[in-house]
């Protein structure tokens, strides 16, 4: 062993002995423990002796009274041994303190001093009852710490004293015999979903052992079902969280998932489809774990998932003197604009003004390009129209018209391209190529020749796909927007009582094999109407595009798509199906209007002029874009096919 190793070993031994010595209870604490243990032993001995002499007693009443007194003394001594200088808080009567404003009501229990119940006063659940996000039956929250008496203590076993109670604030106090104070301070802002939660301590080292200076927050919550469509609500409920300086993440929406914390956590969110319970801090949570577990309907019909947060608040350098540790709850609706506007306010309250908390990203709005469409186009227009109190049926109609007007120039161009394709099929030049390559093995050469001819005519084979390519991001954006839009929740339109969920025209409770698995016991009327309209629109587009008529397999697939959407969207919100129905109807109107406005004779003359253009015939004007790329791909495929045939012929000659 060299000198450095020896010195290091000696130093480690000295540090270890110093830690053991400093962690020992003081002389006063040891004396208190000794007295408690002696008292327990003495009382237990007396109880045994009294029990043995019970039969000889002249009267049983004095003996019974003596036994009860001794039992109470034993309990008191045991409490003193476990809790030490906070033993007085181990007994008491639970009191429920209510704080409320116009939008939020919360209950705080003196047993543990923690949040027990939250009610959103402006909302109801699917049973038309006042919406309680959580209560004592499904919400369990407590802190754990290592006391100066060498015991792990949980606050759920202690009774806090309510102080300074008002309608909007309360202090829940735990105080030791020697002046240590642990306060949980709650303050509810007026007309707000924000509840400030501050841990205020004075000489906490008289309560929490300096060897383990931390408070461990354990929070378990069963997520209450609030919406009619359970499976749909499950899909949009998840535990979200954000590490400081990073983007927002969430646990898996299905099955079980967990996250082991490996950095400072800015906030975490027990999120439902339309409501959130968020706890934010200034990077207090640096270790611990988050977990989510999906619950089966047959086991827990009223609960969707079980969320759990086990996070540690480090109190190193905070045990002595007076300390203030601020946190803030947001308990309210998942309104994108509201959450976005809350970022700065919450950051200011917890002292984290140097970072955008991005709590609005708990609302999932789709992939990056789709999210930007929702964020910068759909949501602002929707909220602008909402300011006029028009009713959400009319708002969705106006939103659809706006989107159709924006995409109209591209739609017109694509329809013109489709018209050119339809006209080209009848031209003798195209017929000549079809006759030149009648065999299946010449299909590649035929297609290449047709593409070259179309290029000379000025026909873009991919032009008909342009509206679909442009409309898909918008369609997908609305697909994510409507199911997460709390504005539609509880809003009726026509026969739909709630645009945020399905509008069942037919329901059944009997188990029907396969059918129940597909439709989940109901059929949505808006979804059914959308399917019928989509089938008609598909027929119209097949008629419009002769190239698709030449591919029976593709045509059949296009007709199967509406049936697929009937099954897929049957559980989705009526607002989404209503929008898709309107979009298809406007597309049909546009189709007839554009076709009526087109002069096919003029288009034919333009195509013939292109064919007679010497630059095009000599290849003076090269194809570009999609046509050029497709021509190059087909040329390469044709060349590869030619080489394969030559190789086969050489093998046959051998």
List the helices and strands and how they pair.
Elements (H helix, E strand, L loop, with lengths): L2 H21 L3 H26 L7 H24 L12 E5 L3 E6 L5 E10 L5 E5 L4 E8 L5 E3 L6 E3 L5 E7 L5 E8 L5 E9 L11 E11 L5 H6 L2 E6 L4 E3 L5 E5 L4 E7 L3 E20 L8 E12 L7 E12 L2 H15 L17 H19 L5 H33 L3 H9 L6 H15 L8 H19 L19 E4 L7 H5 L2 E3 H20 L1 H4 L2 H18 L4 H24 L2 H13 L1 H4 L7 H29 L1
Antiparallel strand pairs: 1-2, 2-3, 3-4, 5-6, 5-11, 7-8, 8-9, 9-10, 10-18, 11-17, 12-13, 12-15, 14-16, 15-16, 16-17, 16-18, 19-20
Helix pairs in contact: 2-3, 6-7, 6-10, 7-10, 7-15, 7-16, 8-9, 9-18, 10-15, 12-14, 12-15
Please bin the fraction of helical residues. Answer: 40-55%
Output the radius of gyration: 37 Å
Tell me the number of helical segments per DSSP (H or I, 4 or more residues long).
18
| Largest sheet, strands/sense/barrel | 14 strands, antiparallel
What structural class should be given to the helix and strand makeup? alpha+beta
Mean pLDDT: 81
- Shape label: elongated
List low-confidence stretches: 1-34, 36-49, 51-63, 617-624
Bin the strand percentage. 15-25%
Task: Give the N-to-C terminal Cα separation.
Answer: 81 Å
Topology, number of strands: 20
Molecular structure report:
The chain is α+β, with helices and mostly antiparallel strands. The chain contains 18 helices and 20 strands. The protein has helices at 3-23, 27-52, 60-83, 230-235, 336-350, 368-386, 392-424, 428-436, 443-457, 466-484, 515-519, 525-544, 546-549, 552-569, 574-597, 600-612, 614-617, 625-653; strands spanning 96-100, 104-109, 115-124, 130-134, 139-146, 152-154, 161-163, 169-175, 181-188, 194-202, 214-224, 238-243, 248-250, 256-260, 265-271, 275-294, 303-314, 322-333, 504-507, 522-524. The strands form 3 sheets. Strands 5, 6, 7, 8, 9, 10, 11, 12, 13, 14, 15, 16, 17 and 18 form a 14-stranded antiparallel β-sheet that branches. Helix 8 packs antiparallel against helix 9 (443-457).
């Amino acid at each position: 062993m060299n000198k450095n190793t020896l010195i290091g070993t000696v130093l480690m031994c000295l540090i270890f002995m110093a830690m053991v010595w400093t962690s020992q209870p003081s002389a006063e604490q040891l004396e208190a423990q000794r007295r408690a243990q002696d008292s327990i032993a003495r009382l237990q001995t007396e109880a045994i002796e009294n029990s043995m002499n019970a039969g000889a007693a002249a009267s049983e009443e004095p003996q019974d009274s003596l036994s009860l007194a001794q039992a109470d003394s034993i309990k008191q001594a045991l409490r003193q041994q476990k809790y030490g200088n906070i033993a007085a808080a181990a007994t008491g009567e639970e009191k429920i303190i209510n704080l409320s404003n116009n939008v939020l009501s919360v209950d705080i229990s003196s047993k543990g001093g923690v949040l027990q119940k939250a009610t959103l006063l402006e909302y109801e659940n699917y049973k038309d009852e006042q919406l309680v996000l959580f209560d004592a039956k499904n919400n369990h929250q407590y802190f754990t710490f290592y006391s100066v008496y060498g015991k792990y203590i949980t606050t759920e076993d202690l009774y806090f004293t309510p102080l300074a109670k008002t309608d909007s604030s309360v202090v829940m106090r735990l105080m030791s015999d020697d002046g240590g104070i642990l306060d949980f301070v709650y303050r509810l802002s007026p007309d707000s979903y924000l509840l400030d939660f501050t841990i205020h301590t004075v000489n906490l080292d008289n309560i929490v052992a300096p060897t383990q200076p931390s408070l461990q927050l354990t929070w378990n919550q069963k997520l209450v079902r609030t919406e009619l469509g359970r499976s749909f609500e499950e899909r949009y409920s998840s535990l979200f969280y954000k590490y400081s300086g990073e983007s927002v993440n969430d646990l898996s929406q299905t099955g079980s998932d967990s996250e082991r914390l490996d950095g400072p956590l800015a906030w975490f969110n027990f999120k439902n489809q339309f409501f959130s319970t968020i706890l934010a801090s200034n990077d207090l949570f640096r270790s611990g774990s988050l977990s989510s577990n999906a619950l089966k309907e047959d086991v827990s019909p009223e609960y969707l998932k079980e969320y759990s947060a086990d996070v540690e608040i480090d109190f190193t350098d905070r045990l002595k003197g007076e300390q203030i540790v601020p946190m803030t709850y947001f308990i309210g609706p998942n309104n994108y604009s509201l959450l976005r506007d809350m970022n700065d306010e919450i950051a200011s309250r917890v002292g984290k003004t140097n970072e955008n908390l991005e709590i609005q990203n708990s609302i999932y709005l789709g992939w990056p390009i789709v999210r930007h469409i929702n964020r910068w186009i759909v949501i602002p227009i929707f909220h602008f129209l909402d300011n006029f109190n028009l009713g959400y049926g009319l708002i969705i109609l106006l939103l659809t018209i706006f989107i159709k007007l924006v995409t109209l120039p591209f739609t017109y161009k694509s329809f013109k391209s489709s018209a050119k394709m339809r006209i080209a099929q009848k031209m003798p030049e195209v017929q000549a190529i079809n006759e030149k390559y009648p065999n299946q093995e010449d299909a590649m050469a035929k297609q290449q020749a047709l593409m070259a001819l179309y290029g000379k005519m000025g026909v873009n084979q991919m032009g008909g796909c342009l509206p679909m390519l442009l409309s898909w991001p918008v369609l997908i954006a609305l697909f994510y927007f409507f199911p997460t839009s709390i504005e539609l929740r509880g809003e009726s339109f026509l026969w739909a009582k709630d645009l945020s969920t399905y509008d069942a025209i037919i329901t059944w409770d009997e188990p029907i094999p396969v059918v129940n698995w597909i439709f989940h016991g109901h059929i949505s009327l808006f979804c059914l109407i959308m399917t019928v309209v989509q089938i008609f629109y598909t027929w119209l587009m097949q008629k419009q595009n002769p190239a698709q008529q030449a591919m029976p397999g593709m045509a059949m697939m296009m007709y199967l798509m509406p049936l697929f959407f009937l099954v897929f969207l049957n559980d989705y919100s009526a607002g989404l199906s209503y929008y898709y129905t309107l979009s298809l109807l406007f597309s049909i109107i546009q189709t007839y209007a554009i076709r009526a406005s087109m002069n096919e004779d003029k288009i034919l003359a333009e195509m013939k002029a292109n064919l007679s253009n010497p630059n095009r015939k000599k290849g003076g004007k090269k194809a570009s874009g999609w046509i050029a790329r497709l021509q190059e791909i087909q040329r390469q495929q044709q060349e590869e096919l030619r080489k394969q045939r030559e190789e086969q012929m050489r093998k046959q000659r051998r």
